[in-house]
Amino acid sequence: MSLEEKLEKWRRLEEEARELRRREADWEFINSQPPRIRAALKLYVETGDIRLASKIAGIEIEDFRELLRLAKIPVVV
Amino acid sequence: MSAEVFAIADTCFLIDWASWRRRNLLFSLFKTVFVPESVLREVRSERTIEWIATSLSSGSLSLFTETPDVIAFARSLVEKSKLLPIRGIDLPEAICLAAGKMRNYIVITENRGALMAAEILEELSGINVWRSLKLIAEALRRSLVKNDFREVFAEYEVDTGHRFPKKDLEEVLHELRGEA
User: Fold this and answer.
1) Rounded Cα gap, residues B109 and B9, in angstroms
2) CB burial of residue B140 (10 Å; 0-12, 13-18, 19+)
3) Phi, psi (degrees; rounded to nearest 5) at B150
4) Taking an 8 Å Cβ-Cβ cutoff, which residues of chain B contact chain A?
5) Which of its termini does chain A have fewer beta carbons within 10 Å around, N or C?
């Protein structure tokens, strides 16, 4: 598989994961959070990047992982 | 030394597996699983720390102290991952990838950026990276768990809040049923 084909494969997988996170997230919960947490959860829905999202939230990765559960945002790997 | 003797785990993997009811299956698959010091520093919860500490004391997990050559390689991987239109990796995952490549360890990760980097970066060609889907499939293949295949994957999803990509899961289930 060429580099372009690999990139296209991952782009498609990322889009599928993003759609799943958007669809299953509890938006009422997300929108009820304080601004910093709300922004971090939205960033996670769009990117799936837990380390960056937890830094924006200002909490540890493991605590952010629990927050994802509460927000019903699936972790897709 | 067989590659499957040693694995090296990243933060997301350990956090997820600490939540799974069958987490100690990990130690039936590998002789020891290394935990980099940089990964250990990111783990905070009582549940995960207790599992890691117990497993370190029994020798099922081992501490991996990063050496300058591993850190230098890891830093170059971080930089290269940021040059491509993929999800970048950060130093803790990069250390696992660097050690996996340099020491021939299986890298176990629940970080998609690490999976992308392993497939795309030329510096990591030939590296062996497993995600939970593959680990659980391997445990089922070796009959380390006797339950219904689908049920075991579903348990993992319930316990961890993880979601396996549907197509990938169906492919794995198909393969497992073909072998059964």
Assistant:
1) 6
2) buried
3) -60, -35
4) 11-12, 15-16, 42-45, 48, 84-87, 90, 109-113, 115-116, 119-120, 131-133, 160-165
5) N
* Sign of the C-alpha dihedral computed for residues B49, B52, B57 and B58 taken in this order: positive
Inter-chain residue contact B84 with A17, CB threshold 8 Å: no
* pTM of structure: 0.93
The conformational region for residue B21 under phi > 0 = left, psi -120 to 50 = alpha, else beta, is: alpha
Residue B88: what pLDDT?
87
Span B111-134, mean pLDDT?
96
Cα–Cα distance for residue pair B79/B90, rounded to 1 Å: 9
Provide the ipTM: 0.89
pLDDT of residue B4: 64
Please state the length of chain A. Answer: 77
Predicted local confidence at residue B124, as pLDDT = 97
Average pLDDT along chain B: 94
State whether the Cα torsion B12-B18-B20-B23 is positive or negative.
positive
Q: Which strands sit side by side in the sheet containing B6-9, from one edge to the other?
A: B61-64, B32-36, B6-9, B106-108, B129-130
Contact criterion met (CB < 8 Å) for B44 and A60: yes
List of residues 6+ apart from B80 with CB closer than 8 A: B121, B123
Return the domain boundaries, chain B.
3-132
Nearest to B39 by CA among B4, B74, B72: B74
